[in-house]
Amino acid sequence: MKYIFVTGGVVSSLGKGLTAASLGTLLERRGLKVVLQKFDPYLNVDPGTMSPFQHGEVYVLDDGTETDLDLGHYERFTHTQLTRLNNLTSGRVYLNVIERERAGGYLGKTVQVIPHVTDEIQKRIHEVAAASKADVVITEIGGTTGDIEGLPFLEAIREFALEQGPHNAIFVHVTYVPFIKAAGELKTKPTQQSVAKLREIGITPQILICRCEKPLDKELRRKISMFCNVPFDAVIEEKDVDHSIYEVPLMLQRERMDDLVCSLLHLDKPAADMTTWREIIRKLIAPAHRVRIGVVGKYIGLPDAYKSVYEAITHGGIANDCGVELVKVEAEEIERLGADDLLKGLGGLLVPGGFGERGIEGKIMAVQYAREQKLPYLGLCLGMQIASIEFARNVLGLKGAHSTEFDPNTAQPVIAMLDSQLKVTKKGGTMRLGAMPCQLTVSSQAAQLYGAFVIHERHRHRFEFNNAYRERFAQAGFVFSGLSPDGQLVELIELPGHPFFIASQFHPEFQSKPHQPHPLFRGFIAAAIALLHQKPL
Ligand code: GLN
Fold it and tell me: What is the pTM (predicted TM-score) of this model?
């Protein structure tokens, strides 16, 4: 078993997760089985209850774990199957240690950061290695070197690597080499200082990934090599990408990063075959078609809040050799200015998941526009609930129809909480989470797209379609095209007679990859292209 630890220096948001994931892509394509794992030094037990303003999207795994969005990159860039083991926060570590202490598990010893907290962290690396049966475990440490809260993790991986030996464990440090305009040059000092900080605690990185806006010339590489104590070839340039994050693996391959990793870890594997990956990039840079897709949400200003949704739309584009321009529309803007003005000229409309009342009426207006104007519509989770509310109000004439999430006293609760959920009060405990089976109606558009009748998709929601309304909806032409196997839960709906109007209670975006675009997104973009060419699907 080989281990790669990825740390970050100077500033956050350097794309450490993307770098780790891209290394995963390259190693997989050299024939290695790879697994990735993220350590987050904050004290929340998991990111499930954190606001998108704080932390971007919450990414959900098959087993229902709510995780950091970097795990989304890991799954999109590789074939790795992640579980609750693959994301560990300080909060979880301390909770485990303290619970064990309360249960008498330490037999009266003084419980300390070293060795008890560090042991708990190391245990998780072993668990991931054992469960995944991978050849290589890539562990990313969140935060920036120098943070107080990251120290136990760094100490834990230092000890771990020492025990494994130099050919079994290496450190990759992702750092920033800023361009100072006034001086007209790249500066290496922050990198030197951040590596010095790592060495102070006993970690010497073998590879430095230098994030920069301008090329690193030989002179600078030599300087970084000399003062950071890494070989010249191990100073790797990672410039900002021109078009897409999916270029990063190719960029790192050009810099021979995977060659270096393999030689340090004594892994004798052929070069990575990136032919199909290159074709993906070609479609992103020079696509045959182009469409504009509107996304109506309430965190539209935050680039990370709908990360997986934006990625899955891009994948839908890849599947159709189509470039997608995302038009991000603030739901409250629609309330102010109307849907016509803001949504005119789009090729398709998507309403993603969401919680809370703000912007709900704007989303309902947007869906009404898409339904009436025959604009392709894809609704995700809240997007399905909104489609149901809109249909109830404007087709069935059920005045004031709503979800009890937004209007607990509504006379027409078309979306409501199941009785079994009403009793749970603990945050994080009330949601339907993780992958569940869904049975598709044989004649549905969804079944055609999936090419299957039973699918497994990931959930993250509290509210459900209210079965008391099923018959009335069905009579008016609303199709329940996907149900839970017992028939009790509505998972997928569609409107026949509309070129593409599909909405799911689950989150298909979590299972889309550039090399395996999700069928619903593929169909959605195909419908947008068809609309553009005004030809029937
Ligand atoms: N707020 C809705 C619910 O809890 C939808 C959640 C979501 O879109 N993820 O059911």
Answer: 0.91
